[in-house]
Amino acid sequence: MQYTEIMVRYGELSTKGHNKKTFIDRLGANVRKALHSFVQVKVHAQRDRLHVELNGADYDSVMERLKLVFGIQNFSPSIKVEKSFEATAQAATQMIKEQVDKPITFKVETRRSDHHFAMDTFEMNNKLGGYLLDKFPNKLKVDVHHPDLTLRVEIRLNGIFLSSETIKGAGGLPVGTAGKGMMMMSGGIDSPVAAYLGMKRGVSMEMVHFFSPPYTSPQALAKAKQLTERLAKYSGSIKFIQVPFAEIQETVKEKVPEGYLMTIQRRMMLRLAAALMIKRHGLAIFNGESLGQVASQTMESMLAINDVTSYPVLRPVLSFDKTEIIKIAQDIDTYELSILPYEDCCTVFTPPSPKTRPNVDRAREYEKRLDVEGLMQRALDGIEITEVHPGDDYLNQNEDVFAELL
Ligand code: ATP
Ligand code: MG
């Protein structure tokens, strides 16, 4: 079938009152970005629907991209015909011919926004339904309640549009409508899932990644960037901010009792994330903590760590079990990367038995042994920012470099 457009239906955003226009404009921009490599495609974001005019582009590839855009409830590949019953009936016949190879039940469902069109929705349903029954007496039977196939007909000012398939979209809200978040992105399983869930609710993420050369390898860094690439598919591109963390970890290890190493390291991470958030006009910090999962993720630990900032620290996977997080990681294609065995800055410096119930006052006390300001300043002076695009390759690129060295 040579479809002429994909008709896109909005989800939750259709109910957003006066913010609606902002949401629709943003969704339009995000869809254009997702489809920018299809030069002939035109996107029209209207009040009730978004129309992707194909102009000959391959509709399967276009739909694959649309599936990743948040804010879309569902969409239908559609064919546009001139405004006459004959043209509609002819296209409908073609659709049934191509799509139906065994007996099924069906119904015709018409919507009409052009009220000057000669037939109303009732007439179109009946006449077209009857016409198709005559054409395909052995294939089609009408069932208005639970049909196998619903043939949708939309009579609009600029033409009549037919579709028979409705494909589920990614749901959520368009990325960017909620503002910017700073995602504390490790190379683990949980933070990419947390990032995905935040993005799904409209947050435009910037990744903050702490790395500790020479204790951590270039592959560990490449892995975090590659995970970012997986997530960039949902938003076009993502800024990846790498923050050198070795000096802080060495100093903390030297000056702080072992039981508090982890708490103080985490306090430093959070402080740095907060500093970056202010500088880059973010509205919240995100992390991948899940309650009770490990020592640093008890409520006592969160209290002792969160003490360093009054900005919101949002934890999208807080109440999920590990198996639930893994399921999402598999669905969004981050799991296989996350389990690659490259050491992370925390594993290297994690004491054998960190305190599961650290005390805030003690943490503050031990921290006085550090030059917090100086350590932070040097880390912030050393940041590097990479714009990560979908399709970028960091891991294999690295392998080549290593291969050359050998
Ligand atoms: P993850 O799978 O996301 O690494 P985790 O269960 O392994 O989570 P931790 O490693 O203790 O838990 O980290 C808790 C959270 O702290 C992470 O989800 C992430 O948001 C943040 N974090 C940990 N390490 C780093 C890092 N190197 N850079 C940035 N953020 C980090
Ligand atoms: Mg981790």
TrEMBL record:
Where does the record say this protein resides?
Answer: Cytoplasm
**UniProt GO cellular component terms:** cytosol
InterPro entries cross-referenced by the UniProt entry = Rossmann-like_a/b/a_fold, ThiI_AANH, ThiI_fer, ThiI_N, THUMP_dom, THUMP_ThiI, tRNA_STrfase, tRNA_sulfurtransferase_ThiI
- So what EC number does this one have? 2.8.1.4
Q: Which reaction does it catalyse?
A: [ThiI sulfur-carrier protein]-S-sulfanyl-L-cysteine + a uridine in tRNA + 2 reduced [2Fe-2S]-[ferredoxin] + ATP + H(+) = [ThiI sulfur-carrier protein]-L-cysteine + a 4-thiouridine in tRNA + 2 oxidized [2Fe-2S]-[ferredoxin] + AMP + diphosphate; [ThiS sulfur-carrier protein]-C-terminal Gly-Gly-AMP + S-sulfanyl-L-cysteinyl-[cysteine desulfurase] + AH2 = [ThiS sulfur-carrier protein]-C-terminal-Gly-aminoethanethioate + L-cysteinyl-[cysteine desulfurase] + A + AMP + 2 H(+)
Biological process (GO) annotations held by this record are:
thiamine biosynthetic process; thiamine diphosphate biosynthetic process; thiazole biosynthetic process; tRNA 4-thiouridine biosynthesis
Q: What does this protein do?
A: Catalyzes the ATP-dependent transfer of a sulfur to tRNA to produce 4-thiouridine in position 8 of tRNAs, which functions as a near-UV photosensor. Also catalyzes the transfer of sulfur to the sulfur carrier protein ThiS, forming ThiS-thiocarboxylate. This is a step in the synthesis of thiazole, in the thiamine biosynthesis pathway. The sulfur is donated as persulfide by IscS.
PANTHER family per UniProt: TRNA SULFURTRANSFERASE
What is the name listed in the Swiss-Prot or TrEMBL entry for this protein? Probable tRNA sulfurtransferase
In the record, what lineage is assigned to the organism producing the protein? Bacteria, Bacillati, Bacillota, Bacilli, Lactobacillales
Protein encoded by which gene: thiI
